[in-house]
UniProtKB/TrEMBL annotation:
Keywords: Transcription, Transcription regulation
UniProt-recorded Gene Ontology molecular function terms: transcription cis-regulatory region binding
Family statement: Belongs to the LysR transcriptional regulatory family.
Name of the featured protein: Transcriptional regulator CysB
Keyword Cell wall biogenesis/degradation found: no
Organism: Candidatus Methylumidiphilus alinenensis
Pfam family, one: LysR_substrate
Domain LysR substrate-binding: 2-154
GO BP annotations listed: cysteine biosynthetic process; regulation of DNA-templated transcription
Length: 186
């Protein structure tokens, strides 16, 4: 927000920076990762209470949708035991493999080949989807390579729609602009 960065990619809400425009790129959800054969993997549909019954390993607060995860537990007055945090899903998976807790990670971080010793359990019904956004400064001249990167990262964000979003002043106007555009789910 101080003009030092041309672009950022974020999942956590950064609404308190008025000079940033947030462009939605894609939706994603979480999964619970457990070692194969774990009791949670045998449940037909897990609950927050089920998950909270085990030590939890997840992302650090303020990173990769962590606040949304915390809010889900708070809403149900559940106090999970988060024993370890990391900024990287591979570190979280290592902790799960070591038996230090059950992992809560972005579903796209699970690789069925590399992580075949782990069982992913869908958690969208527990935490809902998150939206990853590209953040741009309103006052910035956008260079060609930034448009190129955004087009590769989120093809629905055309140069025209980016300009239209940058011209809008209110966050709710930007949200309305993107309402009719379906976001991919990863």
């Amino acid at each position: 927000s101080h003009g030092l960065v041309d672009m950022a990619i974020a999942t956590e809400t950064i609404d308190h920076y008025e000079n940033l425009v947030l462009l939605p790129c894609y939706e994603w959800n979480r999964c619970i990762l457990v070692p194969n054969g774990h009791p949670l993997a045998a449940l037909e549909k897990i609950s927050l209470h089920d998950v909270a019954g085990y030590p939890i390993v997840t992302y650090v607060f303020g990173f990769t949708g962590r606040s949304q995860l915390d809010k889900a537990f708070e809403k149900h007055s559940i106090h999970p035991q988060v024993v370890l945090t990391a900024v990287d899903a591979d570190v979280i998976k290592t902790y799960v493999r070591l038996g230090l807790g059950v992992g809560i990670v972005a579903r796209m971080a699970y690789d069925p080949v590399a992580d075949s010793d782990l069982t992913p359990i869908d958690a969208e019904h527990l935490f809902g989807r998150s939206v990853t956004k590209v953040c741009l400064r309103r006052d910035m001249f956008i260079r060609g390579f930034i448009y190129d990167f955004i087009r590769l990262f989120a093809p629905h964000l055309t140069q025209d729609i980016i300009h239209e979003a940058l011209a809008l002043r209110e966050r709710h106007e930007i949200e309305e602009l993107f309402k009719p555009i379906p976001l991919p789910v990863r």
